[in-house]
Design brief:
Structural class: alpha/beta
Strand order of the largest sheet: 8-7-6-5-4-3-2-1-9
Bound molecules: zinc ion
CATH superfamily: Metal-dependent hydrolases
Order of helices and strands: EHEHEHEHHEHHHEHEHHEEHEEHHH
CATH class: Alpha Beta
Radius of gyration: 20 Å
Strand content: 5-15%
Distance between the termini: 45 Å
CATH architecture: Alpha-Beta Barrel
Shape: globular
Helix content: 40-55%
Oligomer: single chain
């Protein structure tokens, strides 16, 4: 066998990467656009379906984050019909302020994204750096109306909340540069506070269709996750790396093999791949996560740790790598309503910072709308 599996995901039908981002609209070296790049990524990895998680808010690293991210995701759905996308909330200014959001309240934005044909909502608002910027606790009145509505309408939410514990205690230089060092308690919430806020959100919205990314950073405290999975039956997690997760899974192998089989309906595969694609890295991620769950091979893993696959049962494999997310989102992505997308672009495009991208959106309008 070569470095990677000859056929990616050999024992999975319709593999589905449920967690992908677009950080740039074109490749500075090749001049190719993200539409081309995403096609290349899914072909290289043998993925039938992908879900794009829009990031229109947050730290402008590595590229500006604004409403253009929602718009680009919507256009890619028109370019490839096997594409799902989660839209994100935009804020006209920080900290968020209800008064300044009158014609773009979170509920209004939910209606707009839904009408365009988004399949769910991405929330990065629980990641400590964006949390600090927005300045509103997740269980505060600011978000309550949106959670009420999403619970009522069954909206699928992919949320990033908390982060690895090390980001609070001993962040690496790379993490510090990205603004992911949270030691300053006057600026950032503690991880305990974020865990409590999520618990409060679920307590008051027990049917919320919430997926917490990166295993909710519970690989070292899985009992906490188990008790939530038992309490809230609509709640799921994805297993998007965080390499630290896989190292912790490996240290507690028997337990996690059981965990993945016990909760096989509640776990969703994703890579966190982003455009500009590093195809080699994307293939590596797909290959690594698949082999860790599907085989009992010894693998070189994240941060050069040696790990050994868990070889979970076949049914569980099919569910985690495809069926669970298809069950959540439906087996056909929602179609794009071109009129609604046009209206949305007209209303919000003044918020786009990158003038070259703004011009490129005209090209997309011409081609797809
Ligand atoms: Zn992500």
């Amino acid at each position: 066998m070569g470095k990677y599996l000859d056929i990616p995901f050999p024992r999975v039908k319709n593999p589905f990467d449920g967690h992908i981002h677009i950080h740039r609209w074109k490749d500075e070296n090749s001049g190719e656009t993200y539409i081309h790049g995403l096609e290349e990524y899914r072909r290289a990895c043998g993925l039938k379906y992908i879900a794009l998680a829009s990031l229109p808010s947050g730290n402008p690293i590595p590229a500006p984050r604004d409403v253009s991210n929602n718009i680009m995701c919507a256009f890619y759905k028109l370019a490839n019909e096997n594409t799902y996308a989660y839209g994100g909330f935009i804020y006209p200014s920080y900290p968020a302020n209800e008064q300044k959001m009158e014609n773009m309240s979170l509920e209004t934005q939910l209606d707009e994204l839904n009408e365009i044909g988004f399949d769910g909502i991405k929330m990065l608002e629980g990641k400590p750096n964006l949390y600090a910027k927005v300045g509103k606790p997740l269980d505060s009145d600011f978000f309550k109306g949106a959670f009420d509505k999403m619970e009522r309408e069954g909206t699928y939410i992919l949320m990033h909340a908390v982060d690895p514990e090390s980001f609070w205690k001993n962040a690496s230089r790379e993490q510090i540069e990205k603004g992911w060092s949270y030691a300053d308690e006057s600026k950032f919430p503690t991880s305990d506070s974020l865990y409590n806020q999520i618990d409060n959100v679920l307590k008051s919205h027990p049917d919320l269709n919430l997926c917490l990314a990166h295993f909710f950073f519970c690989s070292e405290k899985p009992q906490k996750l188990e008790s939530m999975l038992e309490k809230y039956k609509n709640f799921t997690v994805d297993i998007t790396p965080g390499g630290e997760m896989y190292i912790a899974f490996n240290e507690n192998r028997e337990y996690f093999k059981g965990f993945f089989e016990r909760y096989q309906d509640r776990i969703i595969f994703g890579t966190d791949m982003d455009y500009t694609p590093h195809l080699e890295a994307g293939i590596w991620l797909c290959d690594r996560v698949y082999r860790f769950l599907a085989t009992d091979e010894a693998l070189m893993s994240f941060d050069d740790h040696q790990i050994t696959g868990l070889k979970i049962e076949e049914n569980a494999l099919q569910k985690i790598f495809s069926d669970n997310l298809l069950n959540k989102l439906g087996t056909k992505p929602k179609p794009i309503n071109k009129e609604a997308l046009r209206k949305y672009i007209a209303k919000y495009r003044h918020l786009i910072e990158d003038k070259e991208l703004d011009k490129y959106i005209d090209t997309l309008i011409e081609k797809y709308l």
